[in-house]
Amino acid sequence: MADCGALKVRLLTVDKREGDVKDKIILDLCGGTGAWSEPYRKAGYDVRVITLPKYDIRLYKPPHTVYGILAAPPCEHLAGSGARWWKQKGEKALLEALSIVDACLRIIAISRPEFWALENPVGRLVHYLGQPAMYFNPCDYGDPYTKKTCLWGWFKYPPKNPIVPIEGSKIHRYPPSPDRKKLRSITPSGFAQAFYEANP
Q1: pLDDT confidence of residue 6
Q2: How many domains does one find in the chain?
């Protein structure tokens, strides 16, 4: 699926046709700090981080030509780590979360990018999107901790180079703070770099 030869040929063909990467638009939907798209930005791509408070993804109208899309909708009402509170939060919270996921998929459908990926920790999103294309932990790409994460989409698999997760599941040990949610959601740099190298 995501690593098929046809996709590789298609990407190489588009690279040759479009030339300079500065003309290639990468949308980083619900991108927060922009950590996932950072390798593209450093390489000179036209990266656009579409995230709150400047943008509500549900009202965003994408440009006409989009090369790649990275989507990381908020997981607070979807991740399995919060399952104990699902009943208390009720359906309203779930509908809010799914409306953002739906907006990401709508933008992907409209844009028809050369590659796209939607990320979320393991949880109940699988019941609405089906099985992901792949799972990974940060330690699979050089960051020494665990956070099992799902990826749906159309992309080339970034090859794994796992290390020992000596820091364990460190994000679950972050103390309460105004920045806790942001810190827990940052895309690990090793994965971001590996994804970029597999999908230039």
Answers
A1: 34
A2: 1
